[in-house]
Amino acid sequence: MNTHQHVSRRVLLAGALGAGASWGLAGCGEGSAGKPGAQPTPSGDGGAKGYDGPPVELDFWNGFTGGDGPYMRKIVEKFNAENPNAKVKMTVMQWDDYYTKLPTAVNSGRGPAIAVMHLDSLATNAARNVIEPLDDVATALELKQEDFADEVWKAGEYNGKRYGIPLDVHPLGFYYNKTVMEKAGLDPAKPPMTADEYMTALDTLKGKGIQGHWASPFLFTGGLSVNALIWQFGGDLFDDGASKAAWADEPSVKAVTWFVDLVKNGHSPKNVAQDADAIALQNGKTAFNWNGIWNINTLREKKGLQWGVAPLPNIGGTKAAWAGSHQFCLPRLKTPDQNKSTAARVFLNYVSQQSLEWAKGGQVPARRQIRESAEFKALPEQATLATQIDDLRFPPSVAGIGDAIAELNKAINEAVLLKTEPAKALGDAAARADKILEANRKKYGS
Amino acid sequence: MSVRGYGRSTPYLFLAPYLVLFLAFVVGPALFGIWMSLHDWDFQLPGKPFVGLQNYKDLFDPLSATSLPFWHGMRATGIFTLASVPFLVALPLGLAVLLNRAFPGRTFFRAVYFAPYVLGVAVIGLMFRYILDTNFGILNAFLGLFGVSEIGWTNDQPWAWIGLVGLTVWWTLGFNAVIYLAGLQDIPAEQYEAAELDGANRWQQFWNVTVPGLRPVFVFVVTITILASANMFGQAVLVTQGAPGDSTTTAIMVITDTGLSQFRMGSATAMSYLLALCLAIISLVNFAIFRERKS
């Protein structure tokens, strides 16, 4: 299983919504975590000047359980060697557990000093007082909006404050098995990049008895592929402000229908199991698979596998691909600790400048300067996927949005398994999601 | 001379170690749960507005965000319980009767049938996730030898239920068998002798000696099996992920998701209480059915 496997439901959001009320509430409740002013005032340099206080130990939690984990560990070890007074201890757990555990740990005062989150989880956790603002770190790093894709940058803000320092961007890409393409008489140097080319290629493969694109009914990778298709066909997941689900509209129905037709037209088996689409590509059972950038290292480890990766083909008419982003954040400390707060900022500062090392783990660095560096361009697969940067679309940044997206995933599951017609599955799911969004507005007060 | 007297508090002192844990970890949280279910509860949010019975009312309001998933979950739990309990009550009984007879290797087979129960749900789930995989699973590969086309054990109905029930039966049947075995050994051999003298064959002995002799064991086995099946969680999470659609998403999965992913703990505790109430009623019915009938 890959590291991003579990973005599923809590993956939420971050604050594009008018955030007003919830913050007001936070100030007057009994939760100690929520009292403004109870937090130590950080040193003011946002960690830029290093740490020379008494020795501190910093817990650092993340969900890098896959091939990317060792790369982060390397960065941590390097930091520890250079900063004898601040020892970072990295703990890795499944994302799913992580998003459940972190709030509880923070609440009981046993939370880590540093954490990583997906961009669509930031708003929820900011709204729930799990993490604290770190505008000073952004200032110290001289981070500017121009350095990042707009959405990556904006997702880190909630109620006018910055909660996330973007580390990377992980887009969906188009992987192809060159051996299988050759066998069918396709040119592996020229993967199909338009809707027509794609269908022609699939028909050619079908002529050779190969089901060319396995359509997964699960979030990984079916859900992510359908998200991309919805954007390509001109639809969107939510309306402006994310008050209603927009995936019952015609473009979304077209997108899902295209994906479901892969099954109906024999380009995919029925009932594809979780991860079977990715395995089929590795085993030479299928030619194409849309999968996350994290798949690069998995495929690279397969000796003898001839594969390539390209930006997603443009099926729907608009270039677009799904992407996520890891962002650094600082969990609230129940007992304020000036030294810890300072040292944690020093660490964030350090890692943000090491994101090339991180790119080797199979990611696109969030910062433009690093993306455009010669060193990054020397990582051919990552660099190929990074060319999509301007076409990338992200899950919206609203507290609790993951609860609503879970309904879309259910609809995709039913449609791809041929249990329900796409239009009906999407319509029912949108109606359920609207109720959840309404309940969330009440809960998070926006 | 009577036994030396003891203070009034003596029995309670003996009970105390258990009672303290019971109060702290069962009764306390249960009462706290009732309190939570009357609020819009998120432990991380400072405001936890009191909403009275709204969380319960929502579960009966088809237009609310919580009722549909909850009742789908209840339906899934109900289907699984109905499908698994008969097998989990009948098969272990047959097994226990076999294992109760004298034959070479008896101890070995007793251990073999009990062995899967020792494994945790994570091990079982992962193992069957591979065995039942639609595209690359060993079961479909085996069936393929006989020309059976791919069956969606993890993502098509009714196969997903058959898979989940099958693996659960394989996994837990040893436990019920051991309980039956203990029950069988409590039935006096004289009763069988007497039946035999009266000319009863093996089948008649089974129905007229074994089954009545096991009545108290039945009550226990049926009750705990229903409760265990109604609490099914790990198998569906690991093997089917609740798919296809939400058809194998059990009530406990819905409660976990509502409480620990969506952080609507008030709704989640209300769901828990409703589920507990249903199980309590079923258990009472169960006791009533198996009550010793006066002849």
Brief overview, please?
The complex is a heterodimer of chains A (446) and B (295). With 446 residues, chain A is of the alpha+beta class. Chain A is 43% helix and 13% strand.
Structure description:
The complex is a heterodimer of chains A (about 450) and B (about 300). Chain A is an alpha+beta fold and about 450 residues long. Chain A folds into two domains: about 30-165 and about 325-395, D-Maltodextrin-Binding Protein, domain 2; about 170-325 and about 400-445, D-Maltodextrin-Binding Protein, domain 2 (3-Layer(aba) Sandwich), CATH 3.40.190.10. Chain A is built from 19 helices and 14 strands. In chain A, the strands form three sheets. In chain A, strands 1, 2, 3, 4, 7 and 12 form a six-stranded mixed beta sheet that branches. In chain A, strands 8, 9, 10, 11, 13 and 14 form a six-stranded mixed beta sheet that branches. In chain A, helix 9 (about 220-230) crosses helix 10 (about 250-265), helix 9 crosses helix 18 and helix 18 runs antiparallel to helix 19. The radius of gyration of chain A is 22 Å and the shape is globular. With about 300 residues, chain B is mainly alpha-helical. Chain B has a single domain (about 75-295), classed as MetI-like (MetI-like fold, Orthogonal Bundle), CATH 1.10.3720. Chain B is about 70% helix and about 0% strand. Chain B is built from 13 helices and no strands. Classes of the chains: A alpha+beta (about 450), B mainly alpha (about 300). The interface of A and B includes residues 29, 129, 130, 272 and 443 of A.
